[in-house]
Amino acid sequence: MDKLAIYLRLSLEDAAIGDGLDKDESNSISSQRAMLHAYIRSNDELRDKEISEFCDDGYSGTSMERPGMLRLLKEIRDNKIGCVLVKDMSRFSRDYIELGTYMNQIFPFMGVRFIAVNDHYDSRDHAGSTPPIDTAFQTLLYDLYSKDISVKVKTSVENKCANGEYVFGQVPFGYAKDKEIKNGIAVNEKEAEIVRCIFALALDGNGSTQIARILNEKGIPTKTQMRHPERAGKGGRMQAWDNVSVRAVLNNRFYLGEMAYGKSKRKFVGSKGGIAVPAKDWKVIPDHHEPLVSPEDYEKVCLFRKGADTARKGEKNPLVGKLFCGGCGYSMTYRPIRGKNKYRRFECRKHAVLQIRSCCTCFSADLLEEAVLTMLNRELMVRGDAAKENQSLVSFRKSCITRLEKKIAECRGRKKKLQAEADALYESYAFGSVQAVSYRQKADGIKERISLLMAEEEKHGKELEQLQEEYRRTEEDMKQVIRYSHLEVLTQEVVDIFIKKIYVYKDKRIEIVWNFRENGKETE
């Protein structure tokens, strides 16, 4: 039996329009869920189907790049879903072209039934024909409505910014949201003292790395330690100031009392992220809030560190982002051949600041790449041999999957028979063939047996899901092992597939955390 999928979505535009946040309860996730389950219970064809729920809370309907939607479409491609149920078409998509493509082409081709409850639309009623003209117009109106709402929200945010309201998420270090004035900014004195200290150290001629070292020696807490103490030390890494976090403070004109907005713009309605706007085109409000540094001091610091933030451009190493110092736990920085650098190498980016003796300060990129490639080929060979020896285990898993599928089918068959028995019993009771007391006893007995079968089916279902996932991942691992056997070059693709993390130590040891299912480690 094909599963029935219910899809729920609520976007920020649905919840916030105009100057206030007016929750639209009819569109809330809980309201949508209650409505769809009530519809399923009232429909004889859908009532007995297995239900899967897919939800996107806080995502725009103008883009299909939503986590819940992507999971739903994957299950549809895998032929696991036979019917999709939504509150209305706008929950599925607000893009007129996209929605039309799914309704007219993709769903009919895949044999998927599509039901939009509030729009009184059921694709089964239009099999072999295009949707009626009123449905087509309605999907177009959803598209236009979404674009209109987007413009209204954007205009509302811009108007608030122009009026001096701070409507962004996190407030820069040294400040806090004003508790009395809505969307106002106030100085956080504890953080502000640290900001002033950083500028004072810069005015004394200290570089960003020197400033970071001084802050760490004095035990001055970082932004994360101040605002999110629960995250401090997460992952075994020491929270510390570095040259990047110091520069982030010294580069921020917010400390002059300025508020800038309009730093990015969307490519189109519903697009992810945005396009950066040149700094000269930003909209700036001077004297917006209390400054923490004078313009004169800011200019002196700016002149002192001119060019310090120039981005490094050049080759990218495949191990970047995977390589960590075994001493401090922070990522290693890649240094290509440039200027005085006569050979490629990785450096611990925190050693200059933290001065931890166990840090791996430097590691040759050539030697590291060769060692990692050797370790990877060795791991692939070992896993390939293990796969041949474990054929019996794979066969056993397949037989277990078949056995569980058979048990689940048996449970569903017995449930169906019991439901038919319950229906026949009720019919006999309605016609007076069975007394009330007898009916209640028998009905309760049937209900209890159905409950036991449901519990048994759920138990088998969880076991089946776990076995199928283990089998799938083992198969995927083995396919990758076979495909990439006897590697000669370390590429970005290979590193991303097989390697989760690499730790290098002062004594030149290399430890790899593999991306395989077991996530084993190898040390060399």
Topology:
Blueprint: E1 3-10, H1 12-15, H2 29-42, E2 51-57, H3 67-77, E3 81-86, H4 89-92, H5 96-110, E4 113-116, E5 121-122, H6 133-162, E6 175-177, E7 185-187, H7 189-203, H8 208-217, H9 223-227, H10 243-250, E8 259-261, E9 264-265, E10 275-276, E11 283-285, H11 295-304, E12 323-325, E13 332-335, E14 345-348, H12 351-354, E15 362-364, H13 365-389, H14 391-430, H15 436-483, H16 492-498, E16 499-504, E17 510-514, E18 521-523
Parallel strand pairs: 1-2, 1-3, 3-4, 12-16
Antiparallel strand pairs: 4-5, 6-7, 8-11, 9-10, 13-14, 14-15, 16-17, 17-18
In short:
This protein has 524 residues and is an alpha/beta fold. It has helices at 12-15, 29-42, 67-77, 89-92, 96-110, 133-162, 189-203, 208-217, 223-227, 243-250, 295-304, 351-354, 365-389, 391-430, 436-483, 492-498; strands spanning 3-10, 51-57, 81-86, 113-116, 121-122, 175-177, 185-187, 259-261, 264-265, 275-276, 283-285, 323-325, 332-335, 345-348, 362-364, 499-504, 510-514, 521-523. The strands form 6 sheets. A 5-stranded mixed beta sheet has the order 2-1-3-4-5, with helices on both faces. The protein has a 4-stranded mixed beta sheet with strand order 12-16-17-18.
Description:
The structure is a single chain. With 524 residues, the protein is an alpha/beta fold. The protein has four domains: 158 residues, Resolvase, N-terminal catalytic domain (Rossmann fold, 3-Layer(aba) Sandwich), CATH 3.40.50; 130 residues, Alpha-Beta Complex (Hect, E3 ligase catalytic domain fold); 97 residues, no CATH class; 95 residues. It has a five-stranded mixed beta sheet with strand order 2-1-3-4-5, sandwiched between helices. Strands 12-16-17-18 form a four-stranded mixed beta sheet. Strands 13-14-15 form a three-stranded antiparallel beta sheet. β4 and β5 form a beta hairpin. The longest helix has 48 residues.
